[in-house]
Amino acid sequence: MKEWYVPAEDDPHERTFLQWPVDDQIYREAWFLEEVQQAIVTLANAIASFEPVVVLAAAEHHEKIRQQVGENVALWDIPTDDLWARDSGPLFVVHDGGGLAVRHVNFNGWGGKQRHPNDGLVARRVAERMGLPLLDNGLVGEPGGVEQDGHGTLMAHESSWVNPNRNPGIRAAVEAQLLEAYGAQKMIWAPGLAGQDITDFHIDALARFVAPGRVIIQMPGNTDMSDDWVRTAHQTRSILAEATDAKGRRLQITEIYDPERPRVRDPDFLASYVNYYVCNGAVIMAQFGDDDADSEAIRTIGQLYPDREVVTLNTDALGWIGGGIHCATQQQPAV
Length: 335
Hints:
alpha/beta, single chain, L-arginine/glycine Amidinotransferase, Chain A, 17 strands, 4-stranded mixed β-sheet
C-alpha cells in the first residue's frame, strides 16, 4: 500500500521555512524582540547560501525584513506570532507514489502554555497557499518533539506527546497516530520530563538521528542524578542504547557534551549543539563561546556529515528562550 511519509532531514530540500517573531505579549521587552528577530535574519542568510528560504510574516513586516535579508530569501504574507517553525510551521510529507502534502499536527501552543492565534493557523495557511492537501489524523503536538530517520523509525519523549495538554489517553493510541502521521513503523519512547520547560522536553534538544541506525546525543558534564535534566538525559541514553530501529538494528550512538564555559551562564539557557539543522550541502549549528567544547562539537558533527560544510552561528537569543536552530527551521523536501 502506498503511503505518505516524512523524509529524513538530510534528504534534498526544495526550501527552508522560517517564521518572523512579532508578538509583544510574548516578547514584552522591545530590545529582546529585536535580538530574536536578528537571530532569524542571521539564520535566514546563512541557510540561503545553500538553498532557498521563505520567511513567513504578515505583509506589514516585509519592508523591515527585506532590508536585512538576501535575494535568496522570499517573504510570504502569512501572519505569525513567534519564530518556532519546527513546531507550528508546515510538516511536509511525500507520497511514495509521488506528490507532496502538509501533515497537520494541530499545534496548540505547547499544551496551551503560549498564545498562538496566528501560529496555530500557519500550517493550514501554507498548505492553502501552495495548493497542497492538509492531512489530519487528530494528533496534537509539535514536530520538534519527535525525531525520524526517514526510514521507518521515530523516537520521542512521552512527556511531549502522551500528556493531557496535547493527547490525553494511552500511549499506544498516541503511538499509532504518530506512526501514521510520519509514515513510520517503529516508535522508540523514553519518558522525558514534563512541566520543566514549555515543550515538556522535546527530544531534538537532546538526541537526533544522523542516519538510519545512527544517533547523536548531547550529554551533561554534570553527573548529579538529583538534577532532573541530568537524570532524564541518562535515562534516554540508556533506552536508546538498548533500542532497535525499524530494520531491527541496534542504534550506534555518538556522544557530545554540554559546553562548560558558555558565554551565557544562566541555568535556563539552552546550549544544545545537537539542535542543528541539516540543509542542502551544510549543517547549520550553534556555537556558545566555549572554545574547547565548540571545537569538539564541530569536529564530531563534521565527521558525522563528511559531505557537508559545517557552519556555526551565534544564536544565543534563541537559547535564552529555550530553543535553537533546529527549533526555528522547517524543511520542504524536494519532490
